[in-house]
Amino acid sequence: MKFALFSGCTTPARLKQYESSSRAVLENLGLDLVDIKEFNCCGYPIRNIDFSLSILSAARNLALAEKENLNVIVLCKCGFGMFKKAEHVLRKDSSLRQRINNTLKKEGLEFRGNIKTRHLLYVLYHDVGLEAIKEKVTRPYRDVKIATHYGCHALRPSEIVDFDDPNNPSIFDKLVELTGAESIFWRSRLDCCGAALLGINDDLSIDLAQKKLLDARQSGAHYLCNACPYCHIQLDAVQKMINSERGGNHVLPSILYPQLLGLSLGIDSKTLGLAMNQIDITAIEGFLTSQNFNNPLKVQHFIKRPAILRKE
Amino acid sequence: MHSWRRRATLLFPWILYWNKNKMIYYISLYASLAIFIIGLIYKTSAWFFCKTSIDSKKIPTSKRVLSAINGIILTILSTKILTLAKVFLFDCILQRKVLKEDFFRWLAHVLIYGPFMLLLLMHALGEFVTSAIFPDYYPTINPFMFLRDLFGVLVIIGFSLAIYRRFVLRPPRVKTNPMDWYAIILLAVIIISGIFLEGAKIGSYSIYEQMVADYAGIEEEEEDFKTLTAFWIEEFGTVAPKLEAPSDVKLIESGRRIHETSCADCHSRPQWAFAGYATAATLKGVALTLDRAGIHTFFRYIHFLACFIGLAYLPFSKFFHILTSPLSLLANSVMDRRHSEPANIATRQALETDACMHCGQCTSCCSMGIVFEEVQNVNILPSERIQSFKRVISGKRITEEEVELISDGTYLCTNCHRCTDICPAGINLEDLWFNMRENMLQREYPLFWILSPLSFYRGLMRQSIPQSDYEKPLNRARDAIVAESELMKSRERVLSLESVDREFQSRLLLSNQADTFSACFGCQTCTNVCPVVANYENPQDALGLLPHQIMYVAGLGIKDLTLGSNMLWDCVTCYQCQEHCPQGVEVTEVLYELKNLAVRHLRKAS
What we know:
The complex is a heterodimer. Chain A has helices at about 10-15, 15-30, 50-65, 75-90, 95-105, 120-135, 150-155, 160, 170-175, 200-220, 230-235, 235-245, 255-265; strands at about 1-5, 30-35, 70-75, 115-120, 145-150, 180-185, 225, 255. Chain A is α/β, with parallel strands linked by helices. In chain A, α3 packs across α4, α6 runs parallel beside α9 (about 170-175) and α11 packs parallel to α12 (about 235-245). Chain A starts with a strand and ends in a 48-residue tail after the last helix. The relative contact order of chain B is 0.08. At the A-B interface, α1, α3, α4, α7 and α10 of A face α23, α28, α33 and α34 of B.
């Protein structure tokens, strides 16, 4: 399987371990990743001020991948959501599409909408498959509780992103469970991490993050698990900043999903950049076992529970 | 030969037979050298004066000079000297960073700067450099004669590749400014005039005559002179006034003997100077006329003047990067913002603005470059933005309009670090942009881009920004938006129908992301699931109108209330509202559209 890897802006600049661990995991699972140097901003950060500019930005990336006839793996949930939105709008609105294509034509590009945009987790779940990954797990975890953080822009708006059930998603949990770790249920797992407001309204942004962290901790999680650079930075580096500013010595370390999976696949911690996380996660290696993994895939208990979406 | 003449001809090979006008030559040489030195001092001293960041305003120049000296000495005495040596070899000389990105560009640049430097050392500074290494150096003998032309031709090849790349392949959005044109033209004039000068001299009979008079020692013997001339005409491309009938082999043979005894020691066959010889061969038909018109003097003037202008103007031109880019590469290899002295960071940043050679690599890889296709603000492009930064920190007056353009352009940056990674001069552009943004944000202009996730990086970096400086621009942007909406300020609960704007409402309906608001029946589900609303005890105090109210007033067409609510900017875009709306109202998309409209509306108003 061949994909173009869209790592965006934030990941290569401020979360290199996410890119290196994702590459290591995907290559380990037999995927062929192509880098397109010309990729630009996904468009998400400028959407607040200028919608059509953000669509242009997204469309250029999609057109670049389309030129190579490759589907795109996006590491970032916000970037993924933006691409999906752009695809949706450009399919619907032919006059906007024509305008955007006129601009893209200057560089010999055209958006036709013939390729697929996928988030990393979706590719692992649907294109690689749980069984295929499980076969490669050589060092399953034991006794570690993981709180999965889904991320807003992967789940919603569901009719556009088509990622998972928006009210009761499970693919992330299943991906965590195949490593032998336990994916716990926690009430605010589908809530926002607050990263979208960092730099705009810090108090609000940090309030939202703190609520999630508190809930995950109270639900018994050892680690939070993310698959988005914004969410991860918010729940890792910003959590550290919150602790230094607002006081409090409770920390809940965050691990990136490809780091979690990579360790159980036997990839070394340096490639996975374990030491690069702001809050130390190296202790997770203590939960790895060396036995072969034979348990059948557990269907998670929380799937039966109603989704709780509203906080009291 | 007189020793002074030998010295003079060695020092200035191009004036081998040009003694009459030496005065002009000296005056222009020393004048340009003086301007060069003054320029160098002027530019260098600015590195210690310019305030590149808000922090650096507090550091006096004296401290910056002392810190720089201290830093340099400490670095040289530490193991960092090895890093410096490595960077000098790989990055400054071999241009590793350019090679990694683009072989074609690397080839072009190396072909220009390598041979040009060699020409400078071997040919222009022959007296000091070449004759120090080779005591028998003479510009008219091999290998120097051949190498001079080889280097010149290599520069032309590199130059053509660069021109082809920039004007035919045209990397998207890369700009060519007057400084680039100056550099292109000057370099072309120096090299081409040099080749033409050589060509004119090879064909010139008057120069031949003078050469014989000065060096051959056969003035007395008319016959020998004729024989030698026949040989030079036949073999060396000299064009004499009276071309005699086809010379016979014997005459040429005896000419060759005279040549070998009298000339060959100091003059190789001019064919070795292949570019000049080819030029001479091309001009053969008109060589005599040109020679009588003193064409070689003309080319000589041009060649010199171009060199002198290049020297004098160097500190103010793109060529300054020959000195500053290596300095920037070296400084950046041993410094970083966290560990280095703030005084030295400020000095380095000022130096970096001079180290930019406007190559456009940063612009061609810029994550925001595509935006320039629709927003024609050159400050979006890093290679142009740094020029504006130079103006901002030099303390020159900038108009209000420029403040807007520079502020907007500078904020359109995702801090993706690509420009910094790619910069062949090793400039830490991301740090420059950070300082530049903070500088622009402290002005009166309300910058709306700050209310977008582009601020994420600023949020992460806020501990390095003073609290009041951090919040001021955020409040200014929000206040500017609220100030436009009269109704938001009134506490009246009853609104008059005058504020209804049907046109606004119908425009909103036409937009492809906001056309669903009219289906809202006010059930409040959106507000109930909103994590932002849930965060406040009195959400209306903090947020103004709540999501369902915004959908509702949009339906009524009350523009003021729709655009003036804080809720718009505090929306985390988590899409919970939209996902749960029983009526299919795309609440988050409507909020997005309203944010766009609020800003567009204000921009139009101003």
